[in-house]
Amino acid sequence: MRTLQNSEHQAIGLDIKTSPFTQLVGSIVDRGFVKQCMQEAEAVIHTATLHKPHIATHSRQDFVDTNITGTLNLLEEAVSASVTSFVYTSTTSAFGRALTPPEGAPAAWITEEVVPVPKNIYGVTKVAAENLCELIHHKTALPCLVLRTSRFFPEEDDDKHLRQSFDDVNLKVNELLHRRFDIEDMASAHLFAVEKAPSIGFGRYIVSATIPFTRDDLQELRGNAPAVVKRYVPEFEAEYARRGWTMPQNIDRVYVNELARTQLDWRPRHDFRSAIRSLHALEDFRSPLARAVGSKVQLCIGQSSVLQTFAKIGCAATSYIMQNGLGDKAAAVSFSSHAVQNSQCFIWKDNIDAFAHTIFGFKNRTYTHSVCMFNGFTAGSGRAECR
């Protein structure tokens, strides 16, 4: 919606909660609400879903209601309204168990030809919704494209082992090699899909950052990934060493976006190479859109002097340490006792408590566990940009 509101399109955002980007509040499970929203619509971008994290908080029936029934409501009302382009946001998680090769086997080369083997209710309902899109296209000729998106979320990984093994930024940059992309590229893929749907009819596409690898690398990626990466992006080694980062020895799958680039004319701008270039220049590797969309944490700070002081000293706090850094653009930060240089004043999710309590002495205040970035915020705003 941020992108569409700055385009020539007249965009209407639907959500169950109000926001600056929501014009109509309601649920896609409500058929009457969907019918009302579809009036005079020419194109639909369907991103509403219950996600993997909701497995812990919602029932299987909730997933069926939102991800399947909600999708069917949108599809059928789109047909009734003579919509000319329907884009459904699916997920690479739909591949499920097909993403994990057996011990000793090469890394999985994931294209649209791989048959999904869902491993949870999230994957099951996303695949079912994809099939509804294909069915409705077959029965009614509704132009409908499915985008299987890889990771683009700003939150930290839900795998505890990965959280303990890698700094969060390190992990996300690693994932740009094979299973992540920037939200700016995600948005552009949807806009290209809207444009191409009428001429294509129906199709499924993997959208993820462009990988540097070929099929010939798959066996070596399972046990010696750093050597493979060094062949393609040799400059990563010095940058990782400077930051104290780690490249995993094993990469078990790579997402191939070739079909989306070929048929949708989509050209993702962000990948592992571009991230390394930005990091080397002490710049944020994320797009402006990714920085704007990231979660917000309200620290309830009204005194601009506090924020100005924090910005000036260029420091970051963790659960264990606060130390003066190298300036606003390159603070020396310790994440859980692991030193990371030139990290641009990032404060990570697990350390927000320590930050609020240690730096400002605020207790029993309302703030969320998220990732803070204090590089470039407006002093006195009382709000920190997060990701």
Q: Layout of helices and strands, plus pairs?
A:
Elements: H1 2-5, E1 14-15, E2 24-25, H2 31-37, E3 43-46, H3 60-80, E4 85-91, E5 108-110, H4 121-140, E6 144-149, H5 160-165, H6 168-175, H7 183-200, E7 202-207, H8 218-221, H9 225-232, H10 236-243, E8 253-255, H11 258-263, H12 272-280, H13 288-293, E9 296-298, H14 304-313, E10 316-317, E11 322-323, E12 333-335, E13 338-340, E14 346-347, H15 352-359, E15 372-373, E16 383-386
Parallel strand pairs: 1-2, 3-4, 4-6, 5-8, 6-7
Antiparallel strand pairs: 9-16, 10-11, 12-13, 14-15, 15-16
Description:
The model is unreliable at 296-387 (pLDDT under 50). The chain has 15 helices and 16 strands. Strands 3-4-6-7 form a 4-stranded parallel beta sheet, sandwiched between helices. Strands 9-16-15-14 form a 4-stranded antiparallel beta sheet. It is an alpha/beta fold and 387 residues long. The longest helix is centred in the N-terminal third of the chain and has 21 residues, at 60-80. The protein has 2 domains: 2-289, Rossmann fold; 295-386, no CATH class.
- CA radius of gyration: 22 Å
How much of the sequence lies in strands comes to 5-15%
Helical proportion, percent range: 25-40%
Task: Report the CATH architecture of the largest domain.
Answer: 3-Layer(aba) Sandwich
* CATH T-level fold name of the largest domain: Rossmann fold
Give the CA-based shape. globular
Q: Low-confidence segments, ≥5 residues, pLDDT <50?
A: 296-387
pLDDT averaged residue by residue:
80
